[in-house]
Amino acid sequence: MSNKSVDEYLTDGMYGTRLPKDDERKQFLGTLRERIVIALTIGQVMTDKGLAKLEEAMKDNTQAKLLINGHVSYKFLKEEKALADKYQIPYTTITDEENNTDIGAVLTYDHAIDKEEIFITEESQPEEPVEEKTTSIFAKLKHWFGSTEK
Predict the structure, then answer these.
(1) Could you read off the pLDDT of 112-129 as tens digits, one per residue?
(2) pLDDT of 139 over the 90 cut
(3) Which residue ranges make up each domain of the chain?
(4) Which long-range contacts (CB under 8 A, 24 or more apart) does 69-77 make?
(5) Mean pLDDT of the chain
(6) C-alpha to C-alpha distance for 3 and 90, rounded to whole angstroms
(7) pLDDT number for residue 26
(8) What is the mean pLDDT of residues 30-51?
(9) What's CA 127's distance to the chain center, in Å?
(10) Are 74 and 51 a contacting pair, CB within 8 Å?
(11) C-alpha angle 37/81/60, rounded to 5°?
(12) Domain 20-121's class?
């Protein structure tokens, strides 16, 4: 039998039993990082940038389930839900009014899989070099009015 104090019993009764890794659960829509196959940020969900990677992960992990952030508008989640239906993966919308997270959707299992890389890295497009124009006002005026030299 445990030696809980009265305060611990009252706290558990008012707020529920504390879960291990509670901060991690708040960040990842109620699941733990060690259970996640792939995690999409809200931005990736809204722009459909991670859709191809999510579909690839769903093909390989048909026993997983999809957790969706309830704070993201339904119109941005149509494609993710359609993919889940296509691969017969159950999905749940998680709305936590007390906590905010930047995670938009998570493909997860009920057990640990310990995948090293769960986030999608966005391929950055090479930036075009910006030409610096250090033309003086006099050079611009000369160009506008034409050269008088012959």
Answers:
(1) 898 889 998 765 444 444
(2) no
(3) 20-121
(4) 69/29, 69/42, 69/45, 69/93, 69/94, 69/95, 69/101, 69/103, 69/104, 69/105, 70/94, 70/95, 70/96, 71/42, 71/95, 71/100, 72/42, 72/45, 72/46, 72/104, 76/45, 76/46, 77/45, 77/105
(5) 82
(6) 41
(7) 86
(8) 91
(9) 24
(10) no
(11) 35
(12) alpha beta
Distances (CA, A) of 129 to 124, 126, 134: 15, 9, 15
Q: Rounded to an integer, what distance in angstroms lies between the CA atom of residue 75 and that of residue 96?
A: 19
46 neighbors 104 (Cβ within 8 angstroms): yes
CA dist., res. 109 & res. 13, Å (int):
29
Decide: 109 and 77 in contact? Cβ < 8 Å. no
pTM, entire model: 0.68
The token pair that represents 64 in the structure block:
């997983």
